[in-house]
Amino acid sequence: MTRDLRMRWLTPALALLLAVGLTACNSFAPNTIFGAHSEFGHSVDLLTRRLLYMGVVVFILVEALLLIILVKFRDHDGNREAKQFHGNSTLEIGWTLIPAVILAFIAVPTIKTIFATQAKAMPSALQVEVIGHQWWWEFRYPQYGVVTANELYLPVGRTANFALTTKDVLHSFWVPQLNGKRDLISNHTNYIWFTPDSAFAWNGFCAEYCGTSHANMRFKVFTVAPQEFDAWIAHQKANAVGSAPPAPAFAADSGKAGAPAVAANAPAKGTTTIGNAKVPPPTVTTPVLNVSDTMSATYPRSKLPEWVKPKTPPPTTLTFDQSAIGDVTRGATLFKTAPCIACHTIRGVPTAAGVIGPNLTHVGSRTTIAGGLYPNDLTFLQLWIKNAPAMKPGSLMPLFGKAEKGDTPGVYTDQQIADLAAYLSSLK
Ligand code: HEC
Ligand SMILES: [Cu+2]
Fold first, then answer.
1. Are 199 and 266 in contact (CB under 8 A)?
2. Which among 340, 363, 374, 404 is the best mutation to test ligand 1's pocket, defined by most ligand atoms within 8 Å of the CB?
3. DSSP code at position 244
4. Strand 126-133 vs strand 171-174: parallel, antiparallel, or unpaired?
5. Cα–Cα 20 to 30 A to 81, which of 89, 331, 344, 405?
6. pLDDT of residue 84
7. How confident is the model at residue 264 (pLDDT cuts 50, 70, 90)?
8. In whole angstroms, what is the distance from residue 395 CA to residue 135 CA?
9. What does the pLDDT look like over 319-377, one tens digit per residue?
10. Do residue 280 and residue 173 come from a single domain?
């Protein structure tokens, strides 16, 4: 390579290096796997760091040796031939043994962590059944008789044991800051457990490609103080009582995204042990909910951090008659005999016992709909009922808007849809 050619590559190469380096400076990483908030996360973190540090030591030694040899044995004076010989037992035994020892150093902590994170949870744990559907999540709390969708509430400091199954294809349950991914497999129950160490709102994802709307199969996890969890459970156990429709879900947000809210919920103190790895008590650096701020049974929308709020715009082709104002009572009457009841359950409405779609008993108490894709407010509920397949590609809920074009003919006017949405919103 001539000097000119070398210089021509130098600038773009340096620019690329700088760009890659700068991406690492983004401190705002809401879905990072680093900075875990459960003992499961800590043990994986510990293992990752250990292996990384060991790798750095090996890298430095090998590269240093390489450089020394390159310099020491470089061609000093033209075409002198290097010394030729055949075989060197000491060298060969050495370079077989050293990697074997290194592998042992990698294998022991790795296997320990695998066993620790695969172990059965203690029976006293909170049991949660996670059922994957194309493209939404069903969460059941068998100890309490609660069924909900797409939003998981967990008490801080209590181990939650998840039984993972799927109704259709493979999915994978993943909350980056709380656990490793674990697959939902047909005809088989997988388990995973962890103990959240701080109160907050987290994003969850489906991490196994499962069809058209795989990327739209998300969920939220709200880790809350134990007494708040009890309040939430008590509320979810009761039948929903219709009330006035809620204020818009994410009204123009005042203030900074996820502005740090007060001090940490005192999580379990002392050292947690998972396998043989001693995990230091958590230092909570992310903003958390104030325990004394009573939750009125659901996570306060005003406290939702920015990154758990859906940002997907609705399709521009879908419009709604703004003069149609929904009526809760009319909506309730219509719902009882609407096709909706074939797929949705509302406890307290005897005709509504379908299990194909999410349980709607307390749908008004959730912050999002459709696998975390849209905020749960009247605007989005109406558009969703009008034409779900347009809102979410491949949606297994058919469209209901009268003039909408799709596989099935729609039956409802915008006024009827507004009534249905008003009713559902009232189911707090
Ligand atoms: C053929 C079955 C089926 C019928 C009929 C049906 N739905 Fe659905 N519904 C679904 C499925 C499946 C989903 C989940 C879609 C997704 O998120 O991918 C859903 C989701 C919803 C949601 C969002 C719930 C949440 O928590 O995310 C609402 C609200 C809803 N349906 C209302 C209705 C109403 C109102 C009707 C009647 C006009 C109706 N559905 C009829 C299958 C159905
Ligand atoms: Cu999935």
1. no
2. 340
3. S
4. unpaired
5. 89
6. 84
7. very low
8. 7
9. 999 999 999 999 999 999 999 999 999 998 989 999 999 999 999 999 999 999 999 99
10. yes
- Ligand 1 atom nearest to 381, measured from its CA: 29
- Ligand 1 atom 18, closest CA: 135
Distance (angstroms) between ligand 2 centre and the Cα of 272 equals 32
Hey, what are 227's tokens?
């007494």
What is the total count of domains within the chain? 2
- Whether residue 147 has its Cβ less than 6 Å from ligand 1: no
Residue where one domain finishes, among candidates 256, 286, 316 = 286
Average pLDDT taken over every residue of the chain: 85
Range of the domain at 356: 328-426
Nearest-CA neighbor of 203 among 30, 376, 392, 27? 30
pTM of the model: 0.82
pLDDT recorded at residue 265: 31
Is the domain of 347 the same as that of 275? no
Q: Which two tokens stand for residue 10?
A: 């130098």
Residue 356 located in a structural domain: yes
- Whether residue 298 is contained in a domain is answered as no
Q: Check which CATH number belongs to the domain holding 60 and give it.
A: 2.60.40.420
